[in-house]
Amino acid sequence: MSPEPHELHLHDPQTLYRHWEESQWSPWEVDLSADRTQWESMEDRTLVSFILSSLMVAEERITTKFSGLVGADGSEEEVAFLATQQVDEARHMQFYARFQDEVVSEPALIAAHVQSAREQVSPAFRTIFDDKLVAAHDRLLANPGDEAAKVAFVTIYHLVLEATLGLTTFEFSTRFLERESLLPGFVTGYTKIHHDEHRHIGYGIWFLRKAVAEDTAMGDVVRGTLRDLLPAVAESLTPPAGADASVLGASADELRAFALDGLTRRLNIIGVPIDSL
Ligand SMILES: [Fe+2]
Ligand SMILES: [Fe+2]
Hints:
The protein is mainly α and 277 residues long. The chain is built from twelve helices and no strands. The longest helix has 33 residues, at 147-179.
């Protein structure tokens, strides 16, 4: 059972900062030797490659389009927590790049891995990460004191990309990889990343709920941002062309239902019920 909003306790940025101090890990501690052997003998890599490419591209964007939020107006505790999130995102990007270096291809600069991964991601994915996220980040960088710009950015980044798209991708990708006993090192690293993501999402929900409680106009900013983004999000939750979708063990409808359920719960907590969109 998911908790009702009144039962739910959201951690404030200071508590989340302390959790970060207690949750350090290194991308180089994860053992990738079994993954390397498996990769060599894997017959159909279409679905796995699609997942890896999507994560590589997403995490590069997520890392390099974040500093505007660290620099936006906020308390010292908030800025300290956001600085830790920026380090986490860089760590995630390093893990995916290391996986490319040591399992998928040859060692290369991160930009080269991102470039080849980009060839595999969908147009909807590019709309979200190259257009919408970048535009919201540019706006916040230019207006660090603009609360609406910050709310729009956190809605895209934490609520849509990390919570809705990210948690759904994690759920179905790890279910598939574990069921097929594939890439155990990757699953270990991805699970550590997932724990970090919960902390980030916790901040996003805390911030949005507070912003909406303080100024109801911010609820309209959340609604407008979601309406603009959700078609591309729904489209991007589709298994890739060329992959046997049945291999994933879940249909696009199941992916979308999972994503929508999580989004509905989080919007209730924020105070912007989904039927008000
Ligand atoms: Fe991340
Ligand atoms: Fe994150």
